[in-house]
Amino acid sequence: MGKKAALIRGDGVGPELTACALRVLEAVNPDIELIPVDAGYEWWLQHGGPSLIPPETWKILEEVDAVLKAPCTTPAEPGAPRSVAVSIRQRFDLYANIRPIKTFRGFPSPFGELDFICVREATEGLYSGIEHRLTPDVAIAVRKITRRQSEKVARKAFSIARDKGWSKVIAVTKRNIMRECDGIFIESIDRVSKEFPGITYEEYYIDNMAQQLIKNPDRFNHNVIVGTNLFMDVISEEASGLIASIGMVYSGNFGDNYAMFEPAHGSAPKYKGQDKVNPTATILSAAWMLEYLGEKEKAKAIFQAVEDVIAEGKVLTYDLKGNAKSSEMAAAIAERAAKLLRR
After folding, report:
1. pLDDT, tens digit, for every residue of 108-155?
2. C-alpha dihedral (2, 259, 287, 168), degrees to nearest 10
3. Same fold for the domain at 1-95+250-343 and the one at 108-242?
4. Model's pTM, two decimal places?
5. How far is CA 340 from CA 106, 203, 335, 337, in A?
């Protein structure tokens, strides 16, 4: 019997990007049942409640093997529910958010070919949601860092380096200022590193890391960059700017036996309904989910098809200096993926 995955269509451009991903998935016909579920800001505006995810969706999420999530809008006003992504990460202990940063053929970076991986602890830190308004004019937030989650995400980072045949992990902290929180984090990195002989680690402070990533990004080639939640949210977003467009950056959120896959970009409501946003990140997130669920050959065909269409340069969206619609780029990728599988 095939695996099951929940499908969250998201907000803003989410539904149209979901349609693009589904077109590509249909072209490779994986043995996976996709179950659409409700979640997100637009659903919440209609129905209200304490969460952007309704109880019936949580029930399905508990029963499936993975989740494919299109971008969802997160309300910024005080007292609004926490984001769909944070809610799912915390419920299923998806402690490692992984964003591969790699240049595409036909779209070289000004810095040459880049290839590194960002690993972000995704369940705690400043995203723990522990905030208090002490007075009308004073608010505080708690940056919760635990040894358990720090060691788990460290082990994931070192495992990726080992599986890739890479020899260095970069740990991002601000330990000269936040000595206790980042003290626990770097102690965890150090302890886990001893399980991986031949892989070294180097510590960078977040401000220097941000600067080096712009000045010398190639120095991080074949490195895994790991850090706490907010630091790596910022760093991985910055890194995405090095490879043509954040519309190219896909991601996975991994726990010990569950995963959620999503594009790294937001819901871009101003582009809703225009069929113009780059579908690559959503399509590649779907492909990564196929790989995770055991459909490796079909996942590989989608990754190759995306590479080929981008390298060919004929059917690209506006952010890639083309004039194709999202749906047209998705159709070209779908056609190419199907052709690769027939070989």
Report:
1. 777 889 999 999 999 999 989 899 999 999 999 999 999 999 999 999
2. -140
3. yes
4. 0.94
5. 19, 42, 9, 5
Instruction: Please give the CATH superfamily to which domain 1-95+250-343 belongs.
Output: Isopropylmalate Dehydrogenase (3.40.718.10)
State both tokens at 69: 């999530």
Encoded tokens for 343: 């070989």
Cα–Cα–Cα angle for 170, 74, 316, rounded to 5 degrees: 70
Using alpha carbons, select from 160, 244, 167 the residue that is nearest to residue 201. Answer: 167
Q: Does domain 108-242 have CATH number 3.40.718.10?
A: yes
Domain residue limits, the chain: 1-95+250-343, 108-242
Output the CA–CA distances (angstroms, integers) from residue 326 to 46, 184, 187, 290, in the order listed. 27, 44, 45, 21
pLDDT, tens digit (0-9, with 9 covering 90-100), for 308-322: 999 999 999 999 999
